[in-house]
Amino acid sequence: MIEAESGRVIFNKDEHEKMKIASITKIMTAHLAIKHGDLSDKVKISSKASSTEGSSLYLKNGQTVTLEYLIYGLMLRSGNDAAVAIAEHISGSVEAFAELMNKETEALKMTNTYFTNPHGLDTDDRHVSTAYDMAILTQQAIRNKTFKKVFSTAKYTPSYKDAYPWTNKHRLVTGLYPHADRGKTGYTKKAGRTLVTTAHKNDMTFIAVTINGPDDWNDHMSLFEHAFTHYKMTELLAKGPLPILPGMPDQIQYISEVNRKMPLTTEERQQLVYQIVPEKKPVLNIYINRTEILSTPIKEKKIEAPSAYENLIRKLKELFKW
Q1: Which enzyme class, named as a word (predicted)?
Q2: Which of the four, 68, 113, 131, 171, has the lowest number of CB atoms within 10 Å?
Q3: Coil, strand or helix: which one is 187?
């Protein structure tokens, strides 16, 4: 489990172990469909897409639908036929789309992930990822407003005649856990139950990922409850001039160009230590109990030494408490 804004890992267990991930694969498929396509695109369904096994939207060969229809069906109903149709529309074939998926894993530094298909079916043992990599993917994907909207939808009614409403299969999102706002389910016999959930409360959004978790609904709720109970979003760094730290030259003002927040426990907030490394490109390091939690470049500005007159006035003010 990570916090979405900072990426801080709140809980981890075997988070880098390569495993089959089933339909949470479709988070990457939807992410790329939204990134490279347009929701209004018209997509003609191929025989390959319509005959894809497993969970389905029951698409028909030769049928034409919008990309929006396919993305919602992919995420809410986990349509494997929709996944293939999206892959063929974006890249021309499932194989070419898998190449695009793997290029995106490189860009996102998902170093233990390899995709061979857009749906997560157990058709190739090379198709694997990790809990950590899927959390990083989700963190990136929810930065897109369209993806966030699809990912958080509990019920969707397609605009086609005689269409019936689709209900999200993710029980936490549809009411089981009040703070859960987005997510994707997955299951195959080889992968077991896989689940990705985001939950928001108290200015914090956490992303939980479990793979082969037979009690995943309860696992996710327990993770979220622990995080919301023990952590508070804390401002580590404000944009602008930094306070002068002990040992730093009086003639230099260090400046942060960014704001940084991170969830911390009460104990951690009491253990924060700031250290500036004044090299050619100065860096601010922040530690909790000697463990680095943030390292960020900062700017420096030279401050002219005060004149003798200014020093005299300052001393008089201190002396007479002006």
Answers
A1: hydrolase
A2: 171
A3: strand
What φ, ψ does residue 293 adopt, rounded to 5°? Answer: -115, -15
Q: Per-residue pLDDT tens for 49-90?
A: 999 999 999 999 999 999 999 999 999 999 999 999 999 999
Q: Which two tokens stand for residue 44?
A: 């003609």
Q: Which CATH architecture has domain 2-230?
A: 3-Layer(aba) Sandwich (3.40)
Q: Which residues are catalytic?
A: 23, 26, 78
Backbone angles phi, psi at 168, to 5 degrees: -60, 135
Torsion of CA 90, 96, 100, 105, to 10 degrees: 140
Helices and strands, number each (H, E), in the chain: 10, 16
Give residue limits of the domains in the chain.
2-230, 233-302
- Predicted TM-score (pTM) of this structure: 0.89
184 annotated ligand-binding residue: yes
